[in-house]
């Protein structure tokens, strides 16, 4: 179902102490102004339990930054979707551009990860987005289309309730350079119509990610095909993060 959602991806940041501080600060912000949008944090896996221990708000949930493509077994270092589900994880990022670029995750890997999520009742947040060269060459819509098609066509038993798409132009991630509302809307509209025509899913949630902050969240979230945000840097500041979630 299509719904507004803001997720904070902490990436490889925080220690046990600073994770506690950040969660406490988010809690304080949520107490000040109760929120009606779905909001979630995606801490490093070691700190997930801290985030699930407490009920911050009825709309609060917790995600994981990466999930194994395999089921249980001899895969040292991996975290399975069944483990994540048993630890009250609701969302899993799949195909973040940093995982694609630095860990060579292939489309086939991503399709398997989405399958593991669906089997274990976890919502896969499937990330797509073009690089700067594709934006400059004007080829960006085709690139994103191929990313969506290449993965979703491979997933067996696709379930709209277990899938969110995040459009994150690589040139906007961590750079301070946000896509304009028009640039983001154009790609979101294309993704929505593509997913609808291929899978018959019209009301999928599509998040924007890439230097989203309190100052630009409103103009992005007001766009007809943008349902919220996947937030990196600004999610490490509780006030900014909750302000973004209050930008609908
Ligand atoms: P950013 O990261 O908000 O720091 O640009 C977004 C992301 O990587 O999901």
Q: Distance between the terminal alpha carbons, to the nearest Å?
A: 17 Å
Average per-residue pLDDT, rounded, comes to 96
Which molecules are bound besides the chains?
Answer: 2-phosphoglycolic acid
CATH superfamily: Aldolase class I
Query: Strands across the major sheet, in which order?
Result: 1-2-3-4-5-6-7-8
Largest sheet: 8 strands, parallel, barrel
Number of helices: 10
Q: What is the CATH topology assignment?
A: TIM Barrel
Task: Please give the CATH class.
Answer: Alpha Beta
Order of helices and strands: EHEHEHEHHEHHEHEHEH
Count of separate structural domains: 1
* CATH architecture label name: Alpha-Beta Barrel
Low-confidence stretches: none
Radius of gyration: 17 Å
Shape: globular
Residue share in β-strands: 15-25%
Percent in helix? 40-55%
Structural class, by secondary structure, is alpha/beta
Number of E-type strands: 8
Overview of this protein structure:
Helices cover 41% and strands 16% of the residues. Helix 1 (16-32) links the parallel strand 1 (5-9) and strand 2. With 248 residues, the protein is of the alpha/beta class. It has ten helices and eight strands. Strands 1-2-3-4-5-6-7-8 form an eight-stranded parallel barrel, surrounded by five helices. It is globular. The structure holds 2-phosphoglycolic acid. 2-phosphoglycolic acid binds next to strand 8.
């Amino acid at each position: 179902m299509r719904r507004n959602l803001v997720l904070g991806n902490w990436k490889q940041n925080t220690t046990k102490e600073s994770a506690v501080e950040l969660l406490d600060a988010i809690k304080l912000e949520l107490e000040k102004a109760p929120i009606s949008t779905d909001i979630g944090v995606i801490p490093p896996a070691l700190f997930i339990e801290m985030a699930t221990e407490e009920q911050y708000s009825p709309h609060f949930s917790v995600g994981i930054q990466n999930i194994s493509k395999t089921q249980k077994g001899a895969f040292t270092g991996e975290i399975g979707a069944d483990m994540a589900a048993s630890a009250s994880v609701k969302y899993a990022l799949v195909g973040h551009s940093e995982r694609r670029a630095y860990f060579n995750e292939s489309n086939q890997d991503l399709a398997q990860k989405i399958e593991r999520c669906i089997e274990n009742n976890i919502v896969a947040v499937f990330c797509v987005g073009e690089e700067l060269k594709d934006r400059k060459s004007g080829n960006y819509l085709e690139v994103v289309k191929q990313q969506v098609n290449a993965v979703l066509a491979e997933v067996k038993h696709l379930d709209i309730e277990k899938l969110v798409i995040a459009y994150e132009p690589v040139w906007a991630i961590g750079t301070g350079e946000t896509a304009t509302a028009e640039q983001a809307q154009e790609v979101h509209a294309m993704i929505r119509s593509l997913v609808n025509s291929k899978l018959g899913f019209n009301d999928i949630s599509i998040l924007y990610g890439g230097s989203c902050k309190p100052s630009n969240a409103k103009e992005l979230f007001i766009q007809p095909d943008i349902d919220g945000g996947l937030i990196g840097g600004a999610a490490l500041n509780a006030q900014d993060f909750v302000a973004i979630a209050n930008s609908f």
